[in-house]
Amino acid sequence: DAQYGSKYLITTNREGPHTQAAGLPDQLPFFTVNDYKSYISRLRDLPRYLGEAEETLAAGAREGWTQPCEPMKGLSAAIRYHVVDSADDSVFMRPFEKRPEAISTREWKSLNKEARDAVITAAIPAFRSYADFYDTSYAPKCRTDIGATTYPDGEAFYASKIKKSARSNHGWFFMVLVRYIKDVPDSRLYY
To answer: Looking at the whole model, is its pTM more than 0.90?
Structure first.
């Protein structure tokens, strides 16, 4: 797939950099001061992380590799869900709802203050930028045709997906599809 543009298809309305970032509160351990400091550091890194996602998506758009419009419905709202007015309203503050016993009250207050600052100055602006990019630069270039064969070099890309899948546990399914395609040549199957 690396020779094709599928490397640019990093997001959908169900998953992508926005869901990976928003999932941090549920994916990381929160027991020690260092756990919380690591988390805060990741929050401060969100502008870089989502900025790189924007660059990847923009490169894909230039090359003709964007997601189809229809399956992307709801993505803007999913991203903007994290653009809130207060750190208290952000999912990123969820790890701070209860202080672990191993962390002193003084340390907890300091970590909480650092986290609020990271949410307000990094996380929320990063999500706002990502949503604005999606709305103004990516969504207008999404594809109206959902067939994988309509990507640049799409026929070869689709053939490579079938070949790759034929070697997997689900290869038998794709072999049936290939036979179907031969029987119904005007059919378009979707990646």
So the answer is: no
